[in-house]
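Example 9 (inverse folding). The structure is encoded as follows.
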């Protein structure tokens, strides 16, 4: 799978800004791995992710995982993605804090013209730890047959536009 992180061993500082177009990460997983495509900012700093025409299907863990840990906000736009038949969530946004002393950070995510179907978890999961504010906009998204429902998570206002 594709594991794109600021740093897996040491939580340094700084932002992680990425744009990915035409990525395929299918049929991955096992041995305690991660989603087919995992993007994570660890430590102080913001995470800004733009994905366009990404395919993550038949992964043993999950499809797309976009995660911000500790100080900093998560802003993401996913367009024309296909995430199908993954064992976990199809598309997963996660805004975390390491401790209660971390400042509030926000999650702002948009999924447009995409399909997240037949996944073992939710089609789209968005989770915001308090005291931050989380928003998820789904526009023209197909969410069929996901075992965990269309959307799940906590602390996030979800808006669905057909």
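The amino acid assigned to each position is listed next.
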């Amino acid at each position: 799978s594709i594991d794109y992180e600021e740093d897996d061993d040491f939580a340094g500082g700084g932002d992680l800004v990425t744009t990915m177009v035409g990525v395929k990460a299918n049929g991955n997983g096992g041995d305690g791995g991660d989603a087919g495509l995992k993007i994570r900012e660890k430590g102080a700093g913001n995470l800004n992710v733009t994905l366009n025409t990404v395919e993550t299907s038949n992964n043993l863990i999950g499809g797309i995982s976009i995660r911000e840990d500790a100080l900093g906000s998560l802003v993401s736009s996913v367009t024309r993605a296909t995430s199908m038949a993954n064992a976990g969530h199809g598309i997963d946004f996660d805004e975390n804090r390491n401790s209660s002393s971390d400042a509030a950070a926000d999650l702002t995510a948009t999924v447009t013209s995409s399909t997240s179907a037949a996944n073992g978890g939710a089609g789209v999961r968005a989770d915001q730890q308090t005291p931050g504010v989380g928003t998820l906009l789904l526009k023209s998204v197909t969410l069929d047959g996901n075992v965990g429902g269309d959307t799940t998570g906590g602390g996030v206002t979800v808006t669905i536009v057909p």
